[in-house]
## 1
Amino acid sequence: MTDQPTPRDLSRRMLLGSFGAVGAGAALAACSGTSTPPGAAPSSGAFGQGATYSGPKVSLAFWNGFTGGDGPFMKKMVDEFNKANPNVTVSMNTLQWGDYYPKVPTAVASGSGPDVGIMHIDQLATNAARRVIIPLDEIASGLELTEGDFAPVVWNAGVYKDQRYGIPLDIHPLGFYGNTAQLTKAGVDGLPTDRAGFEAAVKALQDKGGVKTPFWVTATWPAHLMFTSLIHQFGGGIYDEEGAKATFNSEAGVEALEWLRGFTQSGASPKNVSNDAQAVAFRQQRNSLTWDGIWMMNEWEKVQGLEWAASAIPTIGDRPAVWASSHNFVVTTQATKDPNKLAASRAFISYISERSIDWAKSGQVPARKSVRESADFTALKVQSTLAEQLPNVVFPPSVPGIGDVTSPTYETAVNEVILGKKPSKAALDEAAKKADKLLADNRSKYQA
């Protein structure tokens, strides 16, 4: 996955929403079924203390999936760390996310993988259960990191079976983008914030703005992420709190999906919008309003003559809510073979986290509170605007295999309904039955 995507990057889109690429064949040994938390926790003191490393020279393999426009930002930060820490050499290896998640477990098992890596929030429990990554409670305490140093939602989402497996780097939510020139022509003052305002803006754009289809609802990406935001806004959720049962076929789920489908039925959206076509249309000024990830801000900036603004996802239901994901630092079991690598990993993670203002420029909201409260971040207009959504972010439960359930279940249901192939309730009910079976299989598979 890149976080500055292109229309051709279908694998990135699918992975960010579902993370289905980590199949059983890529797994290490699953959880043993004992009450002992998974992961090969290092011995006490292995990570050392503080944010610096003063041991002998050591090399760290750092893997991630930042193969797009975000990659140069991270590469620059790694180079700066290496210059500031001559006794640590961090080698950065980037893979497409579709290759990354299957490859990491087997590479770590053979000792040829990363010592430090990046994983998305819904991959932490899976890789902890597979013993690919280790608990980071000691690194957090050594750096004196607590919930108060981060956005609480992302800090708490990094815990699995009472142990921390991720140090959050960022949060990347959906954002709401509007063509301000077209809105002005239609007599709409700013981006709407609620259902009535949004629906009125769509009508005004059609009637006064000369835009036939102002809001394109895709049949694929990012429709299921929009659905995730909306179902929570209507008071529902994708799963129960334990991640043991699908709840997306609730009244809230039907209401959310019917609202989306209404735009294709009314003609405000074309009826068969393919993956990323809405983003292409926004670039070409053929639509006026679009919901997409924060990372798209850098794509809009490249378009000459496009006048646009960003704001939080409008509150269509009774409460604000927004889908988001997060990149987290992880340390693998491979690194536990060398205590110097563990100590150097701590210093590297601390360095990048403290300087994540540079990462924010790639189109991210820093997880670190001190960075978000800085004047430098406030000056980043889009990022700071979309950061206001953090209290409303929703993440999936911390359950192994949760990401593998998305694509064949409610993502498919959303697709079928938007295309007019099935009624909303029937599609969601069918998907929920399939999801419950997959969730049960995962509990058996990971003995969770």
Note: The longest helix spans residues 424-446.
## 2
Amino acid sequence: MGKFSERGHQGGVLWGVKGQPTVLQEANVRVDLNREWVSHWPFAPTDHRSQFTPKRVTIETPAGEVVEQLDEPRDSFAGYVMETPWSNAQVAYFAGYTMWTYLTSPFILARPGVLTDEIEPWAERLGDGCA
């Protein structure tokens, strides 16, 4: 397995609450299917890109010059509340770990050694009384 890319629209109330309503609104995402690594670009309103790993996040120019760096990014959220704004590197961390999980899950489940068993069917009752 290699890398996987997608072009996406990321929206929702969270980005505005964090002071970053449009930074990843229209962005490309590239994930590594073998290790926890993600890149988003453009990091609006610039043409910068992010590089995410669990231990380090950077925001870089297209030439690879680091303009913002955050080591041990998870630790940077200590003491934050819902209304605490995020830096670009913190946005890159959150978006990186979430998109890596979302986009790699189908591939991870197809790896050798992953076993599944079918369970008994489950019927849900819908609100109108139909099953």
Note: Residues 3-108 form one domain.
## 3
Amino acid sequence: MDGKALSGSAHRRHLLSAVTHAPTVSLAQREVGAKTNEPAPFRPPLEPLDLAGAVVTFDALHSVKDQVRQLVQEKKAHYVALIKGNQPTASAQLKALPWEQVPVVQSVSGTGRRSPAR
């Protein structure tokens, strides 16, 4: 899930999209108001999608209990969420976990450049 502002449109439009990573396909999209935050329209684009077993990624703006609960309980999906310092309870809980005991099974590094499209 990711939000983007469309440039070049007569009126600035903001869209929230459900997009697959590989291949890149937009599965659902919803316009959100220019003065609103994205969390409110998070649920509607996901409603028609079968996400059982899928991994959903989203930025810190969507790391909200109700949205995570919907993904896990209703959609039977997994998720990768970003937690920032402005979410003090969740941030403290994550910092308290024994991260040094978690084995690294794969590591990748790079320059951030994308490979050419095929």
Note: The CA atoms of residues 14 and 102 lie 39 Å apart.
